Amino acid sequence: MDLMASLQGLVGGVLIGLSAVWLMAAMGRIAGISGILSSLVWARPKGDSAWRLTFLFGLVSGPLLVMALGGGLGNLSGDAVDVTGAVIGAPAGGVALMLLAGLLVGVGTGLGSGCTSGHGVCGLARLSPRSLVATLTFLAAAIVTVYVVRHVIGGGA
Amino acid sequence: MKALAGYVAGLLFGLGLAISGMTDPARVLGFLDLAGAWDPTLMFVLGGAVATTFVGYRLAWARGKPLFEASFQLPTRRDLDARLLGGAALFGIGWGLSGYCPGPAVASIAGLSWPLAAMLAAMAAGWYLARKIA
């Protein structure tokens, strides 16, 4: 286990938590990325789109700031498989795979009313039973998918 | 003020994702690959985020109302249904295929490539479909 990567994970997690707390304290809203962005793209509620758009700008500028300050603050290569240490890592597949994955992520978070942030962070912190079940479900589905891709189809890389 | 508050929230979120390595799909997939060389980083990210949010939410709620809105808007449903479970399962499959959940995918726009652009466009199309089904 890479101690430094774990520590940075914890620090990054606290920052994500502070973001969620700030959005609740300021706007009274759940920091669910899929909900915020889906609403920005497809619903555009009056008076509520400006902060969603600036949230998007902030989200994109975070990694840019880390890269500007030096990669040492960001992702570390450590002993993890395939991790190069780039703050913004390369996609794990080509266009066709990403089209399929993107569609599944979009439809799934839309129907399931949330993603890793809305259910996984905010929902668990609210002790919501729906979010707990959703989080366990998408974690299990993702773990099974990676197992099938890497160890059944891929032959155990 | 709401626009500035939104920027601050997004910036904190993006900084958190970048510092924790979550904008690298390889690190996320390393966590999901229990049968491989397991990378526990995501567990620390989620743990740190949930613990901070758990405490911070209660401090925020104790103030009675948010700074820039009249009231808190919290989900009230507690029942489980097929849409929640099916949606979460579909999302998990897409997450496992790509290593991207919505936050890291969007936060990675500065490193745009054709596969990432495909991911983002398909994700937005998926949100549209989900709204039509709903």
From TrEMBL, chain A:
It is found in: Cell inner membrane. The chain crosses the membrane at residues 20-43, 55-74, 86-111, 132-153. It is a multi-pass membrane protein. The keyword Cytoplasm does not apply. Keywords: Cell inner membrane, Cell membrane, Membrane, Transmembrane, Transmembrane helix, Transport. InterPro entries: Sulf_transp_TsuA/YedE. GO terms for cellular component: plasma membrane. Belongs to the TsuA/YedE (TC 9.B.102) family. This is Sulphur transport domain-containing protein. It comes from Franzmannia pantelleriensis.
TrEMBL record, chain B:
Keywords: Membrane, Transmembrane, Transmembrane helix. The chain crosses the membrane at residues 42-61, 82-100, 106-130. The keyword Transmembrane applies. It comes from the Bacteria. InterPro entries: DUF6691. This is Sulphur transport domain-containing protein. It comes from Franzmannia pantelleriensis.
